[in-house]
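INFO batch 0412 | record 1 of 1 | parsing
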Amino acid sequence: MDSAPGHGKVAHTGCHQTLEIMSKELKASLVRNSLRALGILTLCTCVSHGQSLRANVANPDSALQTILHTLQGTSLPLHEAVQSALENATSVRSAEAVYMSARGAARREAGSFDPRVYFTFNHVDQATPSASFFAGAPVLNTKQNTATGGLRVDLPTGTTIDASLTTVKFETNSLFANLNPQYTSFTNLSLRQPLLGGFFVSATKNSVQADRESEAAKSRYDQEVLATSSQAEQNYWDLYAAERDFAVQKLTRDRAEAFLKDTETRARTGLIGPNQVANARTFLAEQEILLIDREEQLDRLSDALSSLIGKRPDSGKVRLITTDDPPEEFPVENLDILVGEAKERNLRLQAARSDIEARKALSKAAFWEALPKVDFVASLGGNGLAGGAQDVIFGGDTLRAPFSGTMGEAMRQALKRNYPTWSVGVEVSVPIGLRSGLGEEDRLDAELIIAEQLLIQQARALEEEVRTSYRELFNGKRRLQAARAGVDAAGEQVRIGLIEFQNGRTTAFELVRLGADFAVAQQRYSQAMVRSAKAATNLRQLTSGAYGK
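INFO prediction complete | emitting tokens
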């Protein structure tokens, strides 16, 4: 009897415990079912969002174009950038000024062979005390006016010709002067011809040097025009690539932001751990920094193009924006023919050849100028005399001049050579040791060698540049196809990785890495797009416009 009540109590307690256990299991089951339903709902949401991301990945250009169309700036066509560069580039203006200076120097040296007319006048008034009876006065007062006019010319043969007419009017108070005033005239035609000066080689050295330097400056100016056009075009394509890189980075940043939101949602449902949320946040922070860097790079390239072309963005705009796309097709010519055309037509090489010719002119003349100086000199002239005749009383005789006349009469006598004069001779000058001339010859010969070696160096560098640009152009289409395939493959990786992540088969870290790979693939594609265009532009510059004709 005593055991029955105790047994009932134990049975009641066990039943109660059983009910509690069943209640807990039911609650746990309800929670699990609720979480599972919430997870399914979240997965559906993520998959729906993932489908949108996959659509963007499958067609990345559409998403990029959307971002590119939202870029703020002043639109700039390629032809306008090139034209502004030619008008405003300081390097072009400087090269033009150098050419104008060289052309002025050539004109100056050519003018050294122009005839030169000269005229001189001199007046002398003297009072000279005299103790001689034959002075004609205790204090001899004289006045003399001397005028000389002539024509002098230096010929390219080294010959110097000087034709002159000199008249002298002389007045005195001397009692013994038969003519007062006295007019004296004489003409002179002189010639000097160097015999060991190289004749025209030495005489024309400065003129030939100036002409060759003018040709070199003209070639460098034309080359600078080509170089500036090429630089403007290359900077334009660099800006184009920077715009695409910025758009790619912005797209990557936007996806990283959406990815972080999805990860946080999944973490709240307990489907993933907090470490994957941290990975997503780290990835987003990195992409934010890279986006700032890309924007700064974009603005920096815009500023570089603005500085080159001398044109700033419109008021209120921060940058220039490209409007043209790089060409997709380029002519591929025979490499050896292209190298030959570059060596023949490159204006920088032509300028170097003109520099060599200028050095040769000085070097050849230096050989002759190092020799002793031997000049042939000759002159031909006439004298004339006239004046106001006056009687001279000497002792008991009265003397009178046999002729008289004006200054014109004296000049006619001199021009007609009534009283002719002539001379001929040789002048010799021998520097002891010849060190000065021979030293100058050695110096100029060395400068000629330097110029020749510089030409060889430039020709070799030119060929190397042509071959490098040719290879880039030749492989351009393959490179672009490979870069496009890389973008497609990276996009597919991101699409698959997103699905696997949403199904729990991969981690956020792996998805972050795939996103970074996709951004790199897009940037390589942008570089591949402009690389061929820049190579073609460089070939046109190196061949001085021969490529592509």
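INFO post-check: Strands lie at 74-76, 116-129, 139-154, 160-172, 179-194, 320-322, 373-389, 392-394, 397-399, 419-429.
INFO record closed
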